[in-house]
Predict the structure.
Amino acid sequence: MVWSRQLVKIRQIFLRLVSRFSDIADRLSLGRLVVALFVLTTIVAVPLLSVWQVALAAGNEVRPLANQRELPGAVVTPILSVRRIPQTLVESNSAGRVQRKLAQVVEALPADSCLSVVTDSKTIISIGADKPLIPGSNLKLLTAAVALDVLGPDARYSTKLLGLVSGSVVRGDLWLVGSGDPLLVTRGYPLTEKYPTITPTDVETLVDALVAQGVTSVEGAVVADESLYDQERYVPSWGDGIRSVEAGPLGALMINDGSVSGTPLKPSNPALGAAAEFTKLLVARGIAVRDAPEVGKASSDTPTVATLESAPMREIVAEMLINSDNNTAELLVKEIGRVGGGVATRITGLNVIASKIAQWGLPGEGVALLDGSGLDRANYVTCNLLTKLLERDSQNGLVTTALATAGKSGTLRDIFLSGPGSGKMRAKTGTLNGVKSLSGMYPLEGDRSSVFALIMNGTGVSTLSYYRPIWNNLATALELGNQKLDVNKLLPLETAPTP
């Protein structure tokens, strides 16, 4: 308001000066008029401009700001300080911690070994990653991935019971036709296994179907049909310590892994053993069988009495990986050969697996495949191949999620019971005399993960005192990938004092 009154007075003075100048101009010549006008402009305009600038400046100061706060002083963190690039520092610090711990793992490794760790598609460590080594059961990772791709995750095995039922009698033979189902078992069999079958196919369901139809006798024999696959019972290069102990004898029709209850040794022909076991089940349920068990090939026009389907392929693959089931791995290879190559043999199945490795662009140099389970010592793979396979599958892939969980399930149920990895790391173990391997996925915060592969070949590596400290240090190192710097601590160190 004060400045408004002053501006009114200035305007009145200016108007009086203009009026007086007009009277003077009437009495002056043109030259003198120009000089007088210049002088008047200088005398009047300069003060007016100064007054106007002061008024504007004062107008900006009329109202003080509410809730004024003192502005912080300038930061004193140097321009080149790493505190100005926190994300880069966090990532490099995390990787550095993992690498320093992994150095302890590397120091303990034998000469014939490899180690590869990849986090978020970035290689953290790669030691001998392209060196072909004996993988043991880590080979099952390849079998699993190809089975899911070629056969499909929803595929099922169908075991059939064929025969001519007339009233309460089966006229002639009762045919049990195998489909290659590796998990075909009796209800009590899983209780006898070291690693109990997780998703069994209950063969006694077929007996239930006969009882439900009122059948009380079979006028012929129970005849087993295993014609879907070839009759190679064992991989030729397997030693005596593996045959019938770790795997086999193999065939398209196996009940209880080829064993017969009450008999200490497995029959050389698993189909014959299946026919004998099924006959026992029928008799136990009050169905008389006239003739002894046999093996043969059913006619295509024999009527179907009942069909038994397995769990979906994704669960069968999980069974193989979690429990390291050798028979399942070998039968899957034959099924891969049948579906993917047209011939249900081990060789055809392995060729399909090799073709898939190339098709997927995975590193196949130095890889040698003799079986699907990893029992053969002539199998060779690389850590690079295993980590690339797991990367391709991804953290939530069908292979990765089918692995045993540390301290919880399968071959890892008694390992990593506490500490890093317990209850969350998923991995596949591998063990032969002089061979120890561990490959899998370690989940990290924020949907991140690390994939890893560790294979050791050498005298004594499969002993508990040798590999356990190495495995523990590996888990500890992988867990360090979760440790991050506090971003708040990456702010400027302090502020300069306010001037």
In short: The first helix runs from residue 2 to 27. The chain has a mean pLDDT of 87.
